[in-house]
From TrEMBL:
Protein name: peptidylprolyl isomerase
Organism: Prosthecochloris marina
Signal sequence region: 1-27
GO MF, one example: peptidyl-prolyl cis-trans isomerase activity
Catalytic activity annotation: [protein]-peptidylproline (omega=180) = [protein]-peptidylproline (omega=0)
The keyword Isomerase is annotated on this UniProt entry: yes
PANTHER family from the UniProt entry: FOLDASE PROTEIN PRSA, PEPTIDYLPROLYL ISOMERASE
Ranges where the PpiC domain occurs: 176-276, 279-339
Amino acid sequence: MIMKNCFLRCFAVAAIVFVGSFEVADAATADRIVAVVGNEMILQSEVDEQAMVTVLQYPEAKNDPSLKAGILETLVSRKIVLTKARLDSIVVNESEIEKSADERMMFLRSKFKSIEEMEATFSKSYAVIEKEIKDDIRDQQMINNLRRTKMSGVTVTFDEVEDFYNTNRDRLPLVPETVSVSQIVMYPKVAGEARKNALAAIEDIQNQLKAGGDFAQLARQYSQDPGSAHLGGDLGYSRRGDFVKNFEEVAFGLEEGEISGIVESRFGYHIIQLLDKETDAVHTRHILIVFDRSTLDAPAAKAGLEEIRKDIESGKADFAEMARKYSDDPVSAKYGGVIRNTETGETMFVITALRDQLKTVVKSLNNIGDMSKVIRVEPESGAPFYAIFLLNDKKPAHRLNLSSDYARLEKLAIDEKQNRMFQEWINGLQKEIYVKISDI
């Protein structure tokens, strides 16, 4: 059955994500109470709406006779969890809800010629549709937060991972070819005249600060950082590795309220003020005068990187050590040049997902430990730079297996165990919360 055990999948389906063309049943004839959970009701129209969404996303569900019954079961489970989440005062992030709702409304509006057409299709006003979307996102976030709280300590043993693998071996996904790559990045430096002009400008600002000038006001007036100038230079809280090396060293060395001297980075000259400090994060603001980048010395950057490459190739230097010392990319430099997914921390990347230029470089590196020539990189946005790349690891396309993919299998096993335990917990909640279900 298509809907069997779809609890978690259906939770991820938005209540209002209708696209395409379909008929909406008249509310007066469609709506009747089909279930009661605690003090809340589930209406026939809710089940019908979810059925339409499911068919749009999974066309094969259209002929499933148990479709609506499965959806009702899912909605009941959802209401049970929401009732418990509210009793436990689970907190949600309203700013995230607003952002997600805006994105979903923009997507929804793009499917109709006008707001009037959208309202006619749903038989609801724009304001009601928007409210229902926000309510759905809020409910989903509440459920996710409760699940995270209840299941955070769930782990699996090696035997459990092995059992999961043996049970699901034939259904495990095919892993495409992946690689791990390190880099040393070098941006061209600006010529002396541009540096001299920028220094004169930042020194003038420094003198105004020493004379009692207000930092935020001067940042708004003079800073050439478009992202922070209008905020008085405020950069918010940042952790180690978020800033370029010189900026970070100074920022983390300041005391609260202290203003730095002039700090040079590849972007220009900064003056930094520390507003607050936590264990591994700082709240700073800065004033930036940028270098005139029309005077970049590209040949010098390339020559410098060629020299580094020569020392690594001859064995005089270690790639990771050189990356930490010289790379202009602070994130990968912190890990000895290893490129990581900033969200997951993963170091293995699917080759086909890499940008074309890096994909070409990686394909030219045949063996682990091979190093590329100095490459001029032309990013989609931002200034060009030079880089050398090192192939750390390469795994051919294969089906998940215990020997090479234990970490992934462990995560899948944990997910399955969490899902099972969460469903068991929900079943237990039915003893605490009144539930009545009618035939559908």
